Every structure is written in structure tokens, then in C-alpha cells.
Amino acid sequence: MNSLRKYVAEFIGTFVLVFFACGTACVVGCSSQLGTGYLLTALAFGLVIVAMAYSIGNISGCHINPAVSIAMLVSRKMSIIDFVGYIIAQFAGAIAGAAALFGILGVESGLGANALYQEDIVLSIIIEVILTFVFVLAILGVTSKPEYSSVAGVVIGLTLTLVHILGIAFTGTSVNPARSFGPALFLGLFAENSTALADVWVFIVAPLAGGILAALVYMFLAGGKKKVESAE
């Protein structure tokens, strides 16, 4: 039953992320040439994380992102069974959120989908790996000590805002495979000449790689710190 509660919490959190944050991108736009809409979209993603962190964080940890979950798996902070459950819940929540946006705004809105930077797969992967690495590294750091728990949600939300402020101009900023898959699915099914679904693998693979890299680097850094502290 406890696991089920976690999965439901992850479903709800990811639904809210896609519906509110991707929905904001649809409504106000996310062109780097339109500063207000650009910043509002970045803030929407960050604020959703803050809201959900203090709503469901005590239930599931508020991953609402497979890249975060895989980092926790690599860091041995969750089991394989929970990892699979979280991934299923996150993708289901993202699809439900995108379905709600599709029903309200239609595919003409773009549904907040990601796109390749200059139609360059390699460059898009590099960008997404870097963005995800920074985001997940911040999560691992701020959740490493209980005394940080009161500010963790704010730090994580602001970090997500930060990576969006840079990343929107390039790929629309994914850093989250589930968030990318939901909108891409509906564009692929109902939008003519859309490449979103064909390209979505980039926004699944790159964030997962960034999450794994962040976990490995953090374990190395934290392990080194512990050794220094022991020597002292």
C-alpha cells in the first residue's frame, strides 16, 4: 500500500508538471525573443516543483522525473521495483497531463513539446545532458542532509528554473523524459508533419544519461569528502 501511494503521488506530480508548466508554455509562448513569456515558462516549471515538493515530497520524494529516479537508483537510494513503479507512474501522469492540454488547447498549441536544436541530434543530446546533469546534481546535493529538507523544494525549483532560462532557447528544455513524451505522443498522433514523436528518443536518452552522470559524479565527490572528513 505504501508503494501504491508513492506511485499515485508521482502520477499526480507529473500530471501537474505537464499540465501547468507545459500549459504555460502553450499560453504565453517560450520564444527567447519574447522575454516575458520565456521567463514565465521557466518560472512555471520551477514553481510546479516547489508546489509539488511540499505537497507530495514526504510521500514519494517528488521525483516526477525519470532522470531523477534513475539517479536515485544509481545512488542506491531506491529499489529496482520502486524505480519501475515510479517510471510507469511518471509516464502515465505525463500522458494524462498532455491529454488534458490536448483536450483544452489542441495540437495547434504545440503542447509544450521539445524540439531538436538546429535539427542537430548530437548537439541537442549534449545540451540536454548538461542541463540534466546540473539539475540532478543540485537535487542530490540538497537532499543529502536532513537539515536541508526545509529548503530543498525551493532550491530544486529554482534550479529547474535556471536550466529552463538557458535551455528553452535551444531545445525547449526537457531534462525529463516523461515530460517530453506526453506532449510528443499527442503531436505524433494528431498533428500533421510533426517530428516530435520521432525525435522524442533524444529527450528520453539524454536526460537519463545526464541523471546517471550526475549520480556517479556526486557519489565520487561525496565519497571523497567523507574520506577527507575521516582523515581530519
Task: Describe the overall structure.
The chain is an all-alpha fold and 232 residues long. The chain has 9 helices and no strands. It has helices spanning 2-28, 35-60, 66-74, 80-105, 121-142, 149-167, 177-190, 196-199, 202-231. α5 (121-142) runs antiparallel to α6. The longest helix is centred in the last third of the chain and has 30 residues, at 202-231. 52% of the residues are buried. Residues 226-232 have low confidence and may be disordered.
Descriptive keywords:
globular; single chain; mainly alpha; 232 residues; 9 helices
* Major sheet attributes: none
Distance between the termini: 45 Å
Binned, the helix content reads over 70%
Average of per-residue pLDDT values: 94
Number of strands: 0
Q: H/E element string?
A: HHHHHHHHH
| Radius of gyration over C-alpha positions, nearest whole angstrom | 17 Å
Q: Which percent band covers the strand fraction?
A: under 5%
Q: Unreliable stretches, pLDDT < 50, 5 or more residues?
A: 226-232
How many distinct helices?
A: 9
Structural class: mainly alpha
Query: In one word, what is the shape?
Result: globular
Show the helix and strand layout.
Blueprint: H1 2-28, H2 35-60, H3 66-74, H4 80-105, H5 121-142, H6 149-167, H7 177-190, H8 196-199, H9 202-231
Helix pairs in contact: 1-2, 1-4, 1-7, 2-6, 3-4, 3-5, 3-9, 4-7, 5-6, 5-9, 7-9
